Structures are given as structure tokens and as C-alpha cells.
Amino acid sequence: MLKGKQKRYLRSQAHHLNPIFQVGKGGVNENMVKQIGEALEARELLKVSILQNCDVDKNTVASEIVKGTRAELVQIIGNMIVLYKESKENKQIKLP
């Protein structure tokens, strides 16, 4: 589990990132979770955008992705989800 200080640090790191995934009308599917998992392994920190036409509540979307990828939810801000997962091979982010 991330501590408050670590979440603050990750939020500051994620501020300038652009979302690389979008959740739309179909909601979250298995393939999307797999791709997000692979992207997390490569980047450790990423944003997922929830589109206006998404039928599913953003908290549900976040929990489905977190459950599927075993990532940490850093924050949900507006229609943006920030996720963090420590990489096994290419660790870049050093948490405080």
C-alpha cells in the first residue's frame, strides 16, 4: 500500500503525463486490462482517461483496472485515473 507522502510524490510525477488509455462505451474489458498491465510494467506510472460516453461509474472502472492489473490507485481526478505499479524489470521511479 502507498503512503500519503508517496501518493503526493506520484501525483506530482503524473501531472505532466498524457493519458495513454481511454475507457469508453464498452467499459473495461479483459484485453484492456492486459494492455494496461503491460504498459504499467514498462512505465510504472500512467493515466487512464474515462470518456463521457462511458456507461460505468469511474470508481468502478478504477477498481476493475486495479483488481485486474494489481496496480495501486494513486488518484481519480475528474475523468482521469492515475495508476502506479512497481516494475519488475525496468524500475524508474524511486518512492520517498
At CATH level 3, the topology is Translation Initiation Factor IF3
Instruction: Count the DSSP helices.
Output: 3
Beta-strand residue percentage: 15-25%
Number of strands: 4
Q: How big is the Rg?
A: 13 Å
Structural class: alpha+beta
Helix amount, in percent? 25-40%
Plain-language structure description:
With 96 residues, the protein is of the alpha+beta class. It has a single domain (4-84), classed as Translation Initiation Factor IF3 (2-Layer Sandwich), CATH 3.30.110.60. It contains three helices and four strands, in the order αβαβαββ. The protein has a four-stranded mixed sheet with strand order 1-2-4-3, sandwiched between helices. Helix 2 (30-43) crosses helix 3 (58-69). It is globular. It starts with a helix and ends in a 12-residue tail after the last strand.
Write a compact overview of the structure shown.
It is built from three helices and four strands; from the N terminus they run αβαβαββ. It is of the alpha+beta class and 96 residues long.
SSE topology:
Elements: H1 4-14, E1 21-23, H2 30-43, E2 45-50, H3 58-69, E3 72-77, E4 80-84
Parallel strand pairs: 1-2
Antiparallel strand pairs: 2-4, 3-4
Give me some keywords for this one:
single chain, 96 residues, alpha+beta, Translation Initiation Factor IF3, 4-stranded mixed sheet, 4 strands, RNA-binding_YhbY
